[in-house]
UniProtKB/TrEMBL annotation:
Catalysis performed (reactions): 3',5'-cyclic UMP + H2O = UMP + H(+); 3',5'-cyclic CMP + H2O = CMP + H(+)
Known role: Counteracts the endogenous Pycsar antiviral defense system. Phosphodiesterase that enables metal-dependent hydrolysis of host cyclic nucleotide Pycsar defense signals such as cCMP and cUMP.
Protein name according to UniProt: UPF0173 metal-dependent hydrolase PDUR_06175
Protein family according to the UniProt entry: Belongs to the UPF0173 family.
Domain Metallo-beta-lactamase: 7-191
A single GO molecular function term of this UniProt record: hydrolase activity
Keyword entries, A-Z: Hydrolase
InterPro entries (UniProt xref): Metallo-B-lactamas, RibonucZ/Hydroxyglut_hydro, UPF0173, UPF0173_UPF0282_UlaG_hydrolase
UniProt keyword Hydrolase present: yes
Length: 227
């Protein structure tokens, strides 16, 4: 499993079975380093509906004639925008084209602004993505919550993508505890340094992970790691 980071919370996952992108906030993100039309995937996965996660999902899905996986209300929003979708919800699992997606809880919010109105887009979620016999947990935007222990107990997580930006999600201290509860041997910090309010030191966070026996990857946009 090859994982490439495209800034903020966007991850491209590649294996011989499938290519998948999660939370593709690319064109609106000056740090992504790639244009959405360059993305070639078999599926788009969304954790929630905020614009810095929904991003270019509809465009990418249309360009690739592939589905967007999302919690029901967000999936419906994407369907209305013209994308193929797979409607899911928290706790549900779906096997598709060589990989499996399962949604977990996340403690956050999910909506998008159109004109003067905010549209509710269902509950936020985390994503357990299993392919090539390995499992990635993308926590989405979330606070620390106790059931992360249960997620770690019930799933053999090879790598976890955890937000560390603070203010809008959990910060480094809580993310460090989350990594332990999730029993993740490897962690990719996400959702930091895109905007001034979420500036953090990813390398320092990974140093703290190392002290706990966890390998951290403070990837820069465009960098990859093989799991």
């Amino acid at each position: 499993m090859k994982i490439t980071y495209y800034g903020h919370s966007a991850l491209l996952i590649e294996s011989p079975e499938a290519k998948i992108i999660i939370d593709p906030f690319l064109s609106g993100n000056p740090g992504s380093g790639i244009a959405p039309e360059k993305i070639r995937v078999d599926a788009v996965l969304l954790t929630h509906g905020h614009s810095d996660h929904l991003g270019d999902a509809v465009e990418i899905a249309k360009n690739n004639d592939c589905p967007i996986f999302a919690v029901y209300e967000l999936a419906e929003y994407c369907r209305i925008k013209g994308a193929k979708v797979k409607h899911m919800n928290i706790g549900g699992k779906l096997a598709y084209s060589g990989f499996t997606v399962k949604y977990t809880p996340a403690v956050h919010s999910s909506s998008i602004q159109e004109g003067d109105y905010w549209i509710y887009l269902g509950e936020p979620g985390g994503i357990l993505l299993t392919l090539e016999g390995k499992t990635l947990f993308h926590a989405g935007d979330t606070a620390l919550f106790g059931d992360m222990r249960l997620i770690g107990e019930r799933n053999a997580i090879d790598v976890a993508a955890l937000p560390i930006g603070d203010v809008l999600t959990m910060g480094p201290d809580d993310a460090l505890l989350a990594a332990s509860w999730l029993r993740a041997a490897k962690v990719i910090p996400v959702h930091y340094n895109t905007f001034p309010v979420i500036e953090q030191d990813g390398a320092e966070f990974c140093n703290r992970l190392k002290e706990e026996g966890i390998t951290g990857f403070p990837l820069k946009a465009g960098e990859s790691v093989e799991i």
